[in-house]
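To whoever picks this up:

The nightly regression suite flagged Ribosomal RNA small subunit methyltransferase E as changed. Nothing in the input moved, so I suspect the structure step. Input below, exactly as stored in the fixture:
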Amino acid sequence: MNILLLTENDWLHGDEVRLTDHRFQHIQRVLGAEVGTSLKVGLVDGNMGTGTITAIDTGEVLMQVALSESPPPRHPYDIALALPRPKMLRRVLRTVAEFGVGTLHLIHSWRVEKSYWQSPLLQTGNIQRALQAGLERSGDTRMPKVHQHRRFRPFIEDILPALISDRAGVIVHPGSEPVLAADQTDHKALILIGPEGGFIPFEVELACQQGVSVRSLGRRILSVDTALNTVLGRQLI
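Regenerated output under the current build:
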């Protein structure tokens, strides 16, 4: 944990906060902090700064916080990702938070098992916890927005055009297409990533009809999480 994330509910009054949950456990057991120690803190979807411990008691820690720093800039790419299998989804959520992705669209496709949509990980609370873990690792405060689209064609035909009205739209697909590189898209882009094996030809064609271009990550078939890391690593900030 490289930042302690705070919520409005943590405030007692003024600039004083009280932590009693896993953050208290981390401060006490992992950091071994004591009164007077200053730690990096941030308000979820707000500014960052420092928190100075003013008191530690059984089950709680009090801190005086000063939040004057802006969070890191967003990654220039938003992501539309074919829903991965549940055991990979938590890693995907942490990854988009760590890279600073602003918006993640989880979409259906022909190669996505319908049962994946029944995963408890798609519940709002579980999504938020996975995203928070990514923010805590990367030292960010801004939660990515996650949208779920359980039908492919309505997403492509009804929603995608507005998403790429002011930026490039790129679908990455295994094969011989030009390789995605940092200078092959606008600085801002929406990147569509399929399931393992990629989107089927009909899905690629449907996306191209909306103005999306096709790029590859090479001829190898990559796992979803590897493809996601590869895409986001092309435009580091």
